[in-house]
Write a structure and sequence with these properties.
This protein is α+β, with helices and mostly antiparallel strands and about 600 residues long. It has 4 domains: about 20-140, Immunoglobulins (Immunoglobulin-like, Sandwich), CATH 2.60.40.10; about 140-295, 3-Layer(aba) Sandwich (Rossmann fold), CATH 3.40.50; about 310-365, no CATH class; about 365-605, no CATH class. It is about 20% helix and about 35% strand. The chain is built from 12 helices and 30 strands. The chain has a 9-stranded mixed beta sheet. A hairpin with a 6-residue loop joins strand 4 and strand 5. It starts with a helix and ends in a 17-residue tail after the last strand.
Amino acid sequence: MPSPLKCLTLSLACLLAGSFVTAQEEIAKITYPKVRDTSAMVESVFGKAARQGALPFRITIRNNSGADRLWVVTLKEGNSSRKLSTESRFQFAVKNGTEIQEDVIFHFAPAFLAYDYRNLEVTITANGLDRFSRSNGDQTNKRYPKLALSKPIAQRNITKLNDLVKKDDSQNHYFGHSFEAGYLPTNWIGYSALDGLLIDVDSLAEISTAQLQALRTWVRFGGNLEIFFTDEDELGKIPKTLLEEPNLRKSTDVSLGRISVRKWNGSVLDSRLISKSGPLLRSYKPRDKSLSDDFSNNWQLQKRFGIKTFNPVFVFVLLLLFAILVAPVNLFVFAKKGRRHRLFITTPIISLAACVILIAAIFLMDGLGGTGLRAIFADLQPGRNEMRLYTTQEQISRTGVMINQGFETEIPYDINPVDLPSSTYNPFSRSGSQSTLYEIVNTVYQGGFFRSRSEQGFAIRAAAATRSRIESAGFNDGIPVLTSALDTGLKELFYRDENGKAWSLPPNTTVASGSQIPLQEITDDEFEEWLFAANDVFDATLKEQIKTLGREPNRFFAKVLTPEAFALPTHPGIEWEDTQMLLTGTPLEKGNLTDPEAGSPTSTNE
């Protein structure tokens, strides 16, 4: 029997070990001194800051103040000395004698428009109660993916992992953030700041259907999900809607993302697994690096759009004419000697006329609204319990005069500005000195998204429910039988069947919705050549991901007659000169067209 001292030492060691792992972090809390049992608290789920994308936060408000009240919680990151700051303002009506708990999403500026050290300011106000504000600093990793670990994995590993990361590169400060399964967001955008998520099978089995759907959506868009198990009997706990058949030998590609199933001892992670050259992180490319590097040099969409240069001749001539009118002409003609009092009338008139001429000239040269180009990659997954269209849109535009710089959408977007080449019209050029604020709440995007006389490049992602699909009825004389049930016609289609054989729609053939798709056999080289040309318009990272998808069996790639129907709308004042689109997806077997458990596709927080 162990001695009391040994038991006390063991208990203290367990307590200290647990203290290193705080699954959620309280970043702001106010307990109002003038009223009893009334408080407001903000907790982070995956940490306080990120280098791109959005993070989830949980807000808990308890109201026993004696009256119904409206709380306003504001999250803001960045300041006037930075080129881009972001802000979100959330309102909560809380009845007296109740407590609410709400999960919110907050967007961060991408790394190329921010500092490695981020400062998140939280402000809490309520009518009739004290105002509260707190700043939270967080040093983000410079060259390391953003990771999250479930609490059982982090419990005995996080300290060692953090030390390994710091030792490898002093500009990186932690391996990842711990989370509890119950805190996982039900909105996929809450995962968009993450590059990878490590979760044990027991925690995975605890999450709700909505959390599972959000997690799957994030993987479809390029997330890396790492599932850890201790013995093969636990594999049955992995939801089949997430991974039908766990592969213990290699990772499983799921659209643009990946799901890996890894064995561990249930206690300590092998340090070789998580090293930069190890199997876990070897293929990771942090998304903040893509936003910074992929759009400034070899982005074909930007090259087609071109860079508009500023012509100073007009401004110089206008200023010269103004100087001549307001000085010698005004002084010696309009208000000559003996009539100097006319200067009080003529000078304002000349100034006002010059302003009107300048505004009119801007309207004539740049116009109202703007023009742009966009490229869409849409992944159609009509399978059981899913029925979703996952859209990735890259766009570039140039504006003239903008009355309203923001816009609203029907579904929430993961939207990030991209690093365009420096130019006079690029507000985020390295030589620029102006600052911009994005104000984002749910589906409202206000602030300087589309500023007057500027260029904007955005990478946008969104998921939506759909009934569109390509249906498969097996083979007929060795030829795949596919039928289009899309909302638009097809003009090109290439398909790699489940045996790896390549097929295509015959040239100069269109297929209407509801019609069978005629197919002819082609070589792998023809398939790859077409796919290379079709995805050339996208950024380098997405092109590489699409190339990988092209080797996947039972997947089609297509071009439609009306690509605009698949576009993610942004500012209504932008006229899109061209919309390129590549549609891909998995055909749905006709035997799976109805699913009593799935029901109808519905709009969700995705």
